[in-house]
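Exercise 7.
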Amino acid sequence: MELRQLKYFIASAETLNFTVAAQQCFITQSTLSQQIKQLENDLGTPLFERVGKRVYLTEAGRAFLPFARQTVADAAYGVQRIKDIEGITTGCLRIGTTYGLSALITDSIDRFSAQYPEIHLEVTFLKQNDLIEAVRERKVDFALTFEMMEKDELLTEDLVATYHLRAIVSADNPLSQQATVSLRQLSDYNICTPAHGMNARRMFDELCAKKGVELKPRLEINEIHTLLHLVRTGRWVAILVDSIIHGEENLCAVTIREAPLPMPVVWLYPQGMYMSNAVRKFMELL
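Solution. The predicted structure, written as tokens, is:
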């Protein structure tokens, strides 16, 4: 069993297409098929079920996939550790984050890239559930996200900052002159929220249900920057985490009286992961 075979297997498992996987791995399809077959022979069981031109993971393939990912990730961490010892500042840093923290992470990305131009950055935005899964499967090195609702013994959370659910308004909106606003007051405004599955929307729905207030948004959208553009018109009030307006002009965050609970922001990474110099430096910048 070779490391390259595991990489070929992972690519094939993620695409379920040997042609596409071969292209991603920069090899021919025949070479990939031969290496996958050799891996299956070494394991003594088929990893893929081949039906015509389509392939599917077998039960053994699904069971083997997380171990393959773990092995490839550990090898990459080992290489990075040697590079850190030698003082080499090259490689790739894969960062995952949620849409609501885009403004918070932008400045750190810019400063990190200026200080370490040889390090390639890959930044992926996902909903929190998908982001947690990406960390588990080592698709990203670490994630900046909100605190998990349910703890996972395989993942570590380090507190970065604490934010709150707020009513986001333009500077010329009458609400910007208020220190607080109630849920019932918000019913008099055009409310827009993130789409279902995003953290702020989940918190908002739970808050309304807990307080017995029926407050349906007139607009829900899965793209935060368009939502903020609407808020700037002065006609809309967005329900978002106040971290979203970090560095933004002409926007205000008004406290929702019924929403005092904090929303901790954390670094999320695999338990026991080697923390490379690049990871540590990015955390310091943030």
